[in-house]
Amino acid sequence: MKASLSFSTAATPPPRRVRAMRSFDGQLSGAGGRRIYWQSWLPVRTSFAVVIAHGACEHSGRYQRLAEYLLEQGAAVYALDHRGHGRSEGSRAYLDRFEHACQDIDQVVEMARQAHRGRPLFLLGHSLGGALALRYALKRQGKLAGLVLSSPAVALDGVPSGLMMIARLLSVVAPRTPLYPIAAQGISRDPAEVTAYQNDALIYRGKIPARTVVELASFLEWLPAALPALRLPLLVLHGTADTLAPDTGGKRVHAAAGSLDKSLQLYEGGYHELFNELPGMREQVCQDLSRWLKRQQGKY
Q1: Which residues are known to be catalytic?
Q2: Topology of domain 2-297, CATH
Q3: Rounded to two decimals, what is the model's pTM?
Q4: Alpha helix (H) ranges present in the chain?
């Protein structure tokens, strides 16, 4: 088994030039007929593909900077707005079923697979998208070359038991009831990133609905018994000061996953959105991701 645990510190970002890029977007018919928005950033020559699953209440457009970085490495990058998020159809931040969201992801994965046949394809999920990506990978491992989890929302340690009881009741009788807030100040130590988040019209700033909370909780009840079956190469990225999705969750996933090649990168003092952290740290995160992806590509 090749497993690693390491701590990274910030490094001064070197200057870089983004290679020629083509971008596309559109809508697809998701599970239940929901209109799901997707977009892609494509290099002139593709070495591998990455599909990005964003976090709760946000949207795929916030990952353009990461997409441009990956583009330099030869990646074709695809992303979608989850149902109820960004430009996609549905009640805001409302996931009626985790599996429906995974079916939406599967359509984008298939789009990337068909467009880049013979190239390794990786799934990268952040926060709630990390939980969705993990569920997707456990059900559909054969479609992926590896899994990257950025600050995955896979621990509900800080959620009061009383709130979960209320959530389970509301999920049945009033599933769209706003219940769980996200504090914008917890996304990054970079004030400019927090301000951009607060001013982004496509971000939902209300509370997460009861049904979404319960769907996540149900997935986390199922997860421990399922994790040993994960065989994909796995990279977990987590900040040690993440208050929105504590790093205890990322550590548990790394420890329990059955993957023979798994790595856990912890970033001292990092908040929730590592790709939007202070410039030095986010550059280090991107470099760590790039090194891991290059190592995985060497297997093909």
Answers
A1: 127, 242, 272
A2: Rossmann fold (3.40.50)
A3: 0.93
A4: 64-72, 98-115, 128-139, 161-173, 191-199, 210-226, 247-256, 279-297
